[in-house]
Automatic annotation (TrEMBL):
Organism name: Glycomyces artemisiae
Cross-referenced InterPro entries: Ala_racemase_N, D-amino_acid_metab_enzyme, D-ser_dehydrat-like_dom, D-ser_dehydrat-like_sf, PLP-binding_barrel
PANTHER family named among the record's database cross-references: D-SERINE DEAMINASE, ZGC:162816-RELATED
Name of protein: D-serine deaminase-like pyridoxal phosphate-dependent protein
A GO molecular function held by the record: lyase activity
Amino acid sequence: MMDTARLDALRDEVLDWRYKGIPAAAHGLTVAEWLASGPPSPSLPTPLVSISDQALEHNLRAMAAWCADRGLALAPHGKATMAPQLWRRQLDAGAAAITVATSFQAGVARHFGVPRIVIANQIADPAELVRLSVWAGEGTAIGLFSDSALTFVRGAGGWAAPLDVYVELGNPGGRAGARSVKEALEVAAQIEAAPHLRLAGVAGYEGSVTGGTDAASIAAVDDYLGDLATLFEALDFETDRPVVSAGGSAYFDRVAAILGPLADRAEVLLRSGSYLVHDHGFYARMTPTARGGDGPELRPALEGRSRVIARPEPGLAILDGGRRDFPYDQDLPIPLGLKDTECPQISDQHLFLTGAVDGLAVGDTVRLGLSHPCTSFDKWRLIPVVDEETGTVVDAVRTFF
């Protein structure tokens, strides 16, 4: 159960010039007062990113049901949104934990009362390890990854409670993680020998293996997950129900297929995060159903809106949104409802729209599909949630980056 008082206090924040995408008419009102007025979404200034309430709820329920049907637990990666209000909805829908990537993110989760936190990363700062140990001693369940016990040894002084550690298996050329099952077994032995650590599971990230969807890429993912299963089978854990964790937002069907059979002896914990809002680009291509795999049908819940501020030449419209507003690392924004147009270029505060744009005039607004939720939320401090049927803003999601 998260801290309801702290979550509710987010609606008591007073809106002012610090909140991009909020109309000036709302300045001086609390978030709750503004929402109570039933603001119509067309009244919001551009550039804007908003969330569809219906698509959000659909994705939330679809993923929860899919996991439950396969005996999988879900610890959605909170870094995708860094929005405690959305974490609460995920936990209320049955998520077992919230995953984060840094001690700062873990601090946000703890402040808002997330009862179980998975840190899917290495923590090398001794002071931060001690702080995590204190939180564990105060009742927050914390599990973190490791490919080396050395950092924990350096941080041994001042620990308040043992930490659950999942041995991370990586892949050659990837990011963190032991580079072989043999090396991972050596790390596990070091963890078992440390009095302030508890060997509680194994973990990995199959997305570091490949970014493809062809048969060879899927086979490489399966091979990696098979190695993770082998590592799990080779270890004796210091907990009654150890964790085996993998699963980004692209190949979680393969995690279910390869690691799912371990669910009778382990908590098979998916860490998919982008499923909640999905997208119009990267994950629209990569998600299991897009490539004929086993997965829930997801809907893009994020949408951008940008206004035409210039028509400097035929076939070109300049919009008022840019890299400060919309994601661009995994595809540029995609025009919605405009045939034969594209956004081939983006700069800090401008988006180029080309093609059949002759029907657009300065002042017109353009709807935009976005790609990669992880770099959508971080550009916005407050994101309106819109009822698709009425066009009314029904909530506002506060982010903490």
